[in-house]
Amino acid sequence: MNLLSPAFDPAREAALVTGAGNGIGRAIAQALVGEGVRTVFADVSEERVMAAVKASTRPELALPFVGDLATPGAREALLKHAHSALGRVTHFVHSASPPRREADHAMAVSTETWAQMHAVNLEAGFHLSRELARELIAAKTPGSFLLLTSLHAGTPRNLPHYSTA
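Structure (tokenized):
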């Protein structure tokens, strides 16, 4: 008996990875294309995302997207890009996060920095997941979602905007 019904077929799968320009998001996106999965590499930095695509073992399967997921318009553009490039997205990884600076401690973090962190880490992950899930449910198609968090959630440092997000 196969636990995956239908069985996982990289040629049939499609993935969307945010934060794919560096760190964990980059490693996951590159691993997916290495396994033969067509993958959108989304990042706020064109330079980083293009370097990640170029360094992939199968760059022909990696599709770049550049946009700031703090804005609803960029989230909508990302979904539109993914659908036109891949069709149905079956796997979603949300690894995007604005940079953290030690100077943004509880007494110094600006309202703008607080809002941007929550917009990218929480709102983008929620809204992208919900839209992708709706499509999979309607099509009765299996998929997977991975929304990354940080050790800051359980052991916060003095970075309240990041720890709460």
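The two ends are 40 Å apart (CA to CA). DSSP finds five helices and five strands in the chain.
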